Amino acid sequence: MDFGNTLRILIEDRDKSQKEVANDLNIAPTTLGNYVRNLREPDFETLVAIANYFEVSTDYLLNHKNRNGLSPQEERLLHLFSKLPEEQKEIFFEIGKILNKKRKLLIRE
């Protein structure tokens, strides 16, 4: 996944518009739109600001595996999980078990 797609997913996950995010980051909406469309890349300062805004690492934004060997998708999953209250974490585990069981059944077919 490239930077633009990662950024688009983060924006959608937060139920924000590109214009809202651009305003919050104090950058032009057209600039953010160019990032999302992979027409431009942010400078380091803006990259860090985007990472801080979405509470993710710059490695995540750049689709770089972290030192623990986690993919950006795995890091995103851990980030979402860490924000859940304890009772919802248990529900999350149960859903994961169901999905894994379904995957195993599909493989057998």
Descriptors:
109 residues, mainly alpha, 434 Repressor (Amino-terminal Domain)
Fold and architecture overview:
The protein has 109 residues and is mainly alpha-helical. The chain has a domain at 3-64: Orthogonal Bundle (434 Repressor (Amino-terminal Domain)). The chain has 7 helices and no strands. The longest helix has 23 residues, at 86-108. It is elongated. It starts with a helix and ends with a helix. The mean pLDDT is 87.
Short description:
With 109 residues, this protein is mainly α. It contains seven helices and no strands.
Topology:
Layout lengths: L2 H11 L4 H8 L3 H8 L7 H11 L3 H4 L10 H11 L3 H23 L1
According to CATH, what is the class of the domain at 3-64?
Mainly Alpha
Structural class, judged by helices and strands? mainly alpha
Q: How many individual helices? A: 7
CATH superfamily of the domain at 3-64: lambda repressor-like DNA-binding domains
Instruction: Please state roughly what percent of the residues sit in beta strands, choosing from under 5%, 5-15%, 15-25%, 25-35%, 35-45% or over 45%.
Output: under 5%
The end-to-end distance, rounded to whole angstroms, is 30 Å
H and E string: HHHHHHH
Biggest sheet architecture: none
Provide the CATH architecture of the domain at 3-64. Answer: Orthogonal Bundle
Helix content: 55-70%
Number of strand segments: 0
CATH topology of the domain at 3-64: 434 Repressor (Amino-terminal Domain)
* Overall outline: elongated
